From TrEMBL:
Cellular compartment(s): Endoplasmic reticulum lumen
GO biological process, one term: protein transport
A molecular function GO annotation: adenyl-nucleotide exchange factor activity
Keywords from the named record: Endoplasmic reticulum, Glycoprotein, Protein transport, Signal, Translocation, Transport
Record function comment: Required for protein translocation and folding in the endoplasmic reticulum (ER). Functions as a nucleotide exchange factor for the ER lumenal chaperone HSPA5.
Nucleotide exchange factor Fes1 domain ranges (all copies): 90-163
Keyword set includes Nucleotidyltransferase: no
Record Pfam families: Fes1
Record's GO cellular component terms: endoplasmic reticulum lumen
Identification of the protein by name: Nucleotide exchange factor SIL1
Lineage: Eukaryota, Metazoa, Chordata, Craniata, Vertebrata
InterPro entries: ARM-like, ARM-type_fold, Hsp70_NEF-Inhibitors, Nucleotide_exch_fac_Fes1
Protein family according to the UniProt entry: Belongs to the SIL1 family.
Organism: Sinocyclocheilus grahami (Dianchi golden-line fish)
Amino acid sequence: DHSKGEETLLEDEDSEDLEVFRPTDKWQTLKPGQAVPAGSHVRLNLQTGQREVKMGEEEGLKYGRDGNRYTEELKESLKKFKEGMDDPVDSKQDENAVRAQFRPIEELKKDMEALDMLVETDVQVMRRLLNQFNNTNGTTEEKITALLDLEYLVHQVDNAQNLVSMGGMQLVINVLNSTDIRLQESAAFVLGSAVSSNPSVQVEAIEGGALQKLLTLLATQRPITVKKKVLFAVASLLRHFPFAQSHFLKLGGVQVLSELFQTPGTEPLRVRIITVLYDMIIEKVNICL
């Protein structure tokens, strides 16, 4: 019987030969670790929980014609694969090849330390921006860029306080007197962001004369874009700061906002104006209560 002959052959083969499974046209149980030739059919026996295999139709023809040669080729491939895994020389070569693709850890540490030295802190960036603004040879565009970069940084409480300690706050306040409306707008933007929810910086701005300069810009003819940023700065300066609100009233701030509200062409500002006055009234009522 041909199938029995095959079974006898399998029994005579050593343990290494069991890694190569030679299917027949009958379903047979596949043992763990056995290789299955391409084209074979594999299924899971739900009753036994084991995988079973038999040759496919095309594979059966091939196996019938040249089964021994195919098996020997598969066995040889598996043998080479195992030898490649166990070969210490090849493993060492592979390890060296991998090492060659990466830099030593000590070299990487040195590069990282150098990189840390090159990274600027916020304080260093702010100092550089202030120097850029003060550069007498700098263009207006460069000064505006420096102010806008400062505005981004002073949203953080610590950075706004550092701006004061550097003398940058007074510089920004003085720029409100600039003859260039673009610089006025940018300075008001920086001022409003710096004093927002930052009591110590609000005090410095009031003492530096910021409120009076802002009201002057609102009371005189300026583009709507400038007045939007100025209103933003005024609102930020007055919010939760009774001393600034008192100073605002003494400087005639309510009258300035009232006249601005009634000026033709200032419609986009009217909601902002009402909001500033409303917030002051609400804070006053809450204090009295």
